[in-house]
Design a protein that fits this description.
CATH superfamily of the largest domain: Hypothetical protein af1432
Helix content: 40-55%
CATH class of the largest domain: Mainly Alpha
Strand content: 15-25%
CATH architecture of the largest domain: Orthogonal Bundle
CATH topology of the largest domain: Hypothetical protein af1432
Number of strands: 19
C-alpha cells in the first residue's frame, strides 16, 4: 500500500469523524504539545493499520480512535490516549515495543505491550482461557491500572459493534462482559463504562427480556414523569429556603440493574421502587446531611432504607447518601445526596487520578483503594491451586453486594452479602480464621456459620489448638476465606503424608535390617536424584500418596552388594499400625466400610492413595494381582476417629418411628449422615442408615438397642459384596 493509500485512509469520512470527535473531546484539557502528540499517534496508527479494515468496510483505525475517545470523555492523560490509539499495533502489525519507545516514550510503549499480553495467551479450552486471561489481567493491572482501563474501553466499543458477530460469539462475549468486565469497572468506580457495557451485554444476551422491560419502564415513565418533576421542584424550593443552593435532577435506573434486582430478590417489576429517583448535589459534606434533614422533613423515610456511603464508602470509593421516601400518592422515591466532587468522581472512579493536573486527595484515595483491592486479589491468586478455581471464586466476589460490620474496637470491615462469622474471622487475619472456634455477635454467642448483617459488631473467639476443617468450605462465602482454608488443609494433609510416608519407608527398610535414621546423606541424595525429588519430604509424601512404592525405594537405598543378594519377594516384618493420626491420607472405601477391630489390609492405589479394606472385601481379589501394592495393616488407635458404617433395618411403618430410630443412634454416640428407604411393602419398610461412629462397640450397642424396639423387625450391619 502506497503513501497515497494512507492519505486516502486519513481522509476517509469515518476516520475524519472519529478523529475530529477525539480532538474535540481533548481540546479542553490537553496542551497544544499534547494535541500534537495525539495527532502523531493517530497518523502512526493509521499507517500501521493501513491494510486492515473492519467488517463494516471502514478502516480499522476507527476502532482504536473510538477507544481513545471513550477515555477522553473521562479526561485521561495523553499517554493513555496514545496507548489507546496504538493498543493493537504490536499484536496486529509489524510495530514493536522498541519502535514505540523511540517514536513516543516508555510509558506509551509499556501500556501497549501490557494490553497486547492479555490477548496473546493460548489455552486448551475456553474456560481455561477465560481464567488465565483474568489472572493475567490482574498482574498487568497491578503495575498500572490504565492497562485494564484501556481494555475496558476496548471492550465497550466491541460491545457497541457486537451485532456484527455470530450469535454464539455474542452470547459468550456478553456473558463474560457481565460476569467479569462490568464488575471490574464497578470496582474501579468507572460507572459510565460499567452501565453502558452492562446494558449492551443485557440486550445482546437476553433481547426479549430487555425489550419487555424497556416497554414497562416507558409505560411507568409516562405515569411518573410529572410526579418526579413536582418532587424535584418541591425539594429545590425547600433546600433554597434552608440556604442550600443545590442541583436537583431526576435519575432513572438502568434496565440491567432493574433485571438484576428482580433476579436477586425475586421481585416483580411493580415491586421495584427505585426505577426513577431524584439526585441532590450540594457543595459540601455538611450540606449533604442538612439536605437529608430537609428531605425527611418533606417526605417520610421508609424503614430500613437509609444507606450512608459518605461515612462508610463502598470498596471502590463511591460516596453518596441514599434514602427511600414516600412521596405524593404513596409513591416510593429514592433520593441520592452527594457533593459535586463526589458526583464527578462517581462517573470516573480511579480515572479521577489522571483527570486533573493537580491530584486531589479524594482521587488518590480511590487509587489507593483500587490498588489495595488488587493487592488482595494477587495474594489470593498465589494461594489458590489453579487459575480456573481462582477465577470462579473471584466471579462470585465481584458480583456480590456488600455488608459493613464492626470489630469490637469499631473498625469497619467490608464483606460480600451472605458472609458468615467465619468470613469475618479470615477478613481480620488468616491466623484468626484458622484458629476460630466461635463468635459473638452484638455480645451474644453465635456459631461461625452465622450470616452477618450490616451494623453488627463481631468478635471471634480462637484457640491455638484449633485448625480448619473441610466442612468450613461449605460455610464461607469469600474467596479469601475459601483459599486460606484450602491452603491450610493442604498443609495439614502434607504433614500427615510426610509422617505416613516416613512410617512406610521405615517399615520397608526394617525388612532389610535398616532404618531411616541410619541412612547417610549420600544415600538420600542418590535416591532423591533417582526419583527426581527436590527434598526428602517430597519423596516421603509420594509414598503416602501411592505415587511410589516404599518397598522398591528401600531396595534402591541399600548398598549394591546387599541389593544383589535380595530375595525377589518382599515380606515386611511387621504390619502398618493405624493410630488415627494419619488424617486424610488413609481412606476407607464404601465397598466394605472397615471399623476398628475388623481384620484389614491396605492397597496403594495410584489414584486414591492408601485405601484400607476389610480382609474379606471381594474387591481385594483383583487388587491382589499386584502384591507389591498390598500392605499388611492393623489397628492401634491412639485417638478417637470417626468411621463410616451402614446398618440395614426392616421396620413397621408407624408414625414417629424414624424419630425413635434416630434417637437411639444419637444416644449411643452415632451420627446419621443420611438414610435411604431401599424397599417398601405395605406396612413395612427397608431402611439404610449411613452412620459415622468411633468403633465396633458403638455399632454393637446401637444394633442391640434398635432390636429392642417393637417396630424393628431386623437390624444388622450391612453385608459386604
Amino acid at each position: 500500500m502506497t503513501a497515497s493509500d494512507v492519505t486516502t485512509i486519513l481522509n476517509h469520512p469515518a476516520v475524519v469523524t472519529a478523529y475530529n470527535s477525539l480532538a474535540g473531546l481533548t481540546r479542553g484539557y490537553l496542551s497544544s504539545s499534547e494535541q500534537k502528540l495525539l495527532k502523531k499517534a493517530f497518523h502512526y496508527g493509521a499507517e500501521a493499520h493501513r491494510k486492515q479494515f473492519r467488517k463494516s468496510g471502514e478502516p480499522y483505525i476507527t476502532h482504536p480512535l473510538t477507544v481513545a475517545s471513550i477515555l477522553a470523555e473521562l479526561n485521561f492523560d495523553i499517554n493513555t490516549l496514545c496507548a489507546a490509539i496504538l493498543h493493537d499495533t504490536i499484536e496486529d502489525t509489524e510495530v514493536t515495543e522498541e519502535d514505540l519507545v523511540k517514536t513516543f516514550n516508555k510509558t506509551v510503549a509499556y501500556l501497549v505491550q501490557a494490553v497486547t499480553k492479555l490477548d496473546k495467551l493460548k489455552f486448551r479450552n475456553l474456560k481455561e482461557a477465560q481464567a488465565e486471561s483474568f489472572v493475567k489481567m490482574l498482574f498487568v493491572m497491578a503495575d498500572d491500572l490504565r492497562v485494564i482501563i484501556i481494555k475496558l474501553a476496548d471492550r465497550l466499543h466491541n460491545m457497541r459493534t457486537i451485532s456484527a458477530m455470530s450469535e454464539s460469539s455474542r452470547k459468550r462475549i456478553s456473558r463474560e462482559t457481565l460476569e467479569v468486565f462490568a464488575p471490574i469497572a464497578e470496582r474501579l468506580g468507572l460507572k459510565k463504562i460499567q452501565n453502558e457495557i452492562q446494558e449492551l451485554a443485557f440486550w445482546a444476551l437476553l433481547p426479549n427480556i430487555a425489550e419487555k422491560l424497556s416497554l414497562k419502564v416507558k409505560e411507568l415513565s409516562g405515569n411518573r414523569k410529572e410526579a418526579i418533576k413536582k418532587i424535584q421542584k418541591k425539594i429545590s424550593k425547600s433546600l433554597l429556603h434552608s440556604s442550600l443552593n443545590a442541583e436537583v435532577e431526576g435519575r432513572q435506573k438502568t434496565l440491567y440493574s432493574i433485571y438484576k434486582k428482580q433476579q436477586e430478590k425475586n421481585l416483580e417489576f411493580d415491586q421495584i421502587h427505585d426505577v426513577f429517583g431524584v439526585r441532590v448535589i450540594v457543595k459540601s459534606v455538611q450540606e449533604c446531611y442538612i439536605a437529608l434533614g430537609v428531605i425527611h422533613g418533606l417526605y417520610a423515610p421508609r424503614e430500613n432504607s437509609f444507606k450512608d456511603y459518605i461515612a462508610v464508602p463502598k470498596t471502590n470509593g463511591y460516596q453518596s447518601i441514599h434514602t427511600l421516601v414516600t412521596g405524593p400518592y404513596g409513591l416510593a422515591i429514592e433520593v441520592q445526596i452527594r457533593t459535586s466532587e463526589m458526583d464527578k468522581v462517581c462517573e470516573s472512579g480511579v480515572a479521577a487520578h489522571w483527570m486533573y493536573k493537580n491530584k486531589s486527595s479524594d482521587s488518590t484515595s480511590r487509587l489507593t483503594l483500587a490498588r489495595n483491592w488488587l493487592g488482595d486479589l494477587l495474594h489470593l491468586q498465589k494461594e489458590t491451586g489453579s487459575s480456573l478455581e481462582f477465577y470462579e471464586n473471584m466471579k462470585k466476589d465481584l458480583i456480590m453486594d456488600e455488608i459493613y460490620v464492626f470489630t469490637p474496637r469499631g473498625k469497619i470491615i467490608q464483606l460480600p452479602l451472605q458472609s458468615t462469622a467465619l468470613d469475618f474471622a479470615y477478613a481480620i487475619h488468616t491466623s484468626v480464621g484458622n484458629t476460630a472456634v466461635s463468635a459473638e455477635i452484638n455480645s451474644k454467642p453465635a456459631s461461625l456459620k452465622q450470616k452477618l448483617q450490616t451494623g453488627q459488631t463481631v468478635k471471634i473467639n480462637t484457640s491455638e489448638t484449633n485448625a480448619p476443617k473441610a466442612e468450613w468450605l461449605n460455610i464461607v462465602t469469600t474467596s479469601k476465606a475459601r483459599t486460606a482454608i484450602r491452603h491450610e488443609l493442604k498443609q495439614i494433609t502434607d504433614q500427615d503424608a510426610v509422617q505416613v510416608g516416613h512410617k512406610m519407608l521405615d517399615r520397608a527398610l526394617d525388612t532389610y535390617g535398616l532404618s531411616f535414621d541410619k541412612l547417610d546423606d549420600k544415600t538420600i541424595q542418590k535416591a532423591l536424584k533417582y526419583y527426581k525429588k527436590d527434598s526428602m519430604d517430597d519423596l516421603l509424601k509420594s509414598f503416602a500418596f501411592a505415587e511410589l512404592l516404599p518397598s522398591i525405594a528401600a531396595k534402591k537405598m541399600l548398598p549394591l552388594y546387599k541389593q544383589r543378594g535380595l530375595a525377589k519377594e518382599y515380606l515386611p516384618k511387621e504390619a502398618f499400625s493405624i493410630t488415627g493420626k494419619e488424617g486424610s491420607i488413609l481412606s476407607y472405601p464404601q465397598c466394605c466400610e472397615p471399623l476398628p477391630d475388623d481384620e484389614i489390609v491396605g492397597y496403594m492405589s495410584p489414584i486414591k492413595g492408601i485405601v484400607v479394606h476389610r480382609k474379606n472385601c471381594p474387591n481385594l481379589e483383583e487388587m491382589e494381582k499386584n502384591p507389591e501394592r498390598m500392605i499388611v495393616m492393623k489397628w492401634d488407635l491412639e485417638q478417637e476417629v470417626l468411621f463410616r458404617t451402614t446398618i440395614q433395618m426392616d421396620v413397621i411403618n408407624k408414625l414417629g418411628v424414624l424419630a425413635k430410630l434416630a434417637s437411639i443412634v444419637a444416644e449411643n454416640h452415632g451420627n446419621i449422615e443420611r438414610f435411604d428407604q431401599v424397599d417398601r411393602d405395605g406396612n413395612y419398610s427397608g431402611l439404610e442408615f449411613h452412620l459415622s461412629i468411633a468403633n465396633k462397640m458403638n455399632l454393637k450397642n446401637i444394633l442391640y438397642k434398635l432390636r429392642q424396639l417393637p417396630e424393628v423387625l431386623k437390624a444388622s450391619r450391612k453385608e459386604i459384596g
